[in-house]
Design a protein that fits this description.
Low-confidence stretches: 15-19
Shape: rod-shaped
Order of helices and strands: HH
Number of strands: 0
Strand content: under 5%
Radius of gyration: 26 Å
Mean pLDDT: 67
Largest sheet: none
Number of domains: 1
Distance between the termini: 79 Å
Length: about 80
């Protein structure tokens, strides 16, 4: 049996409630099941770009630190060359 996610459960499960069940004219059990699936689907769509953004941010940070280190080493080499 499928678990029905209620608004209070959405906070616990990190699934935002995107649709309301008010006045749809559909039996409650079918309504809840459809809304649960819709909420899970849209929540996954919202989380995916965040994962991509965070992984891109992590890559940019590591790449940025690599570039900074490379620039510092280049400056050190230039200073050493100038003092020779």
């Amino acid at each position: 049996m499928e678990k029905i996610i209620r608004p209070e459960d959405s906070l616990k499960n990190d699934i935002p409630l995107l649709f309301s069940t008010d006045s749809l004219g559909i039996p409650e059990k079918i309504q809840q099941s459809a809304l649960t699936k819709a909420n899970q689907y849209f929540a996954s769509l919202l989380r995916a770009p965040m994962r991509v953004f965070l992984s891109t941010l992590a890559f940019n940070e590591s790449f940025g630190s690599f570039i900074e280190d490379w620039i510092l080493k280049l400056r050190q080499l230039m200073r050493m060359h100038m003092t020779m």
